[in-house]
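Training component of the fellowship. As part of building independent skills, the fellow (R.M.) carried out the full modelling exercise for a liganded target. The chosen ligand was 4-nitrophenyl phosphate. The inputs are recorded below so that the supervisory panel can assess the work.
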Amino acid sequence: MISVLFVCLGNICRSPLAEALFMQHVNKQLLNDKFKADSAGTASYHLGELADIRTRNTALRISNLKLTHKARQFNSQDFLLFDYIVAMDKTNFQNIMKLRPDNAKAEVLLMRHFDSMIQNEDTIPDPYYGTDIDFEEVHYMLLDCTQTFLKKLNAKNKN
Ligand code: 4NP
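Fellow's submitted model of the complex:
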């Protein structure tokens, strides 16, 4: 079983959506016995909360996804529990790396590096202070990135 943890700042906009979209691709491709996913935030502002209502509404409307994840904070144990930790932006990446133990198992990656349409970008923009359009753009961005990421993981672990 390959385990993936998606990480953003608050764990209420980007990473719970990335987790749900990734698992939707996994389910549709009948790969449930091969991949599992979770999400977390580097900050503790929203612990225990469901995803932001704008994220949930957009996820339901565009991808027929009901988000049920409750926000939790990223911690150094996650380096031992997951194979891959996927950060939404460079600040998340740096905050994750500050907690890296010597015996870390996880490989830390940037989500936007899996965008199939754009190269040289490293950020899934934080929509929290944005508009409904920003939430929609992030949704389509994560739809693409999670799909491409799964494709690469699956190809890598075929043998
Ligand atoms: P996320 O978005 O990191 O994608 O979950 C944010 C959510 C909340 C805050 C910032 C970003 N906040 O400052 O409360």
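The panel noted the following from the submitted structure. Strands lie at 2-8, 35-41, 84-87, 107-110. The two ends are 14 Å apart (CA to CA).
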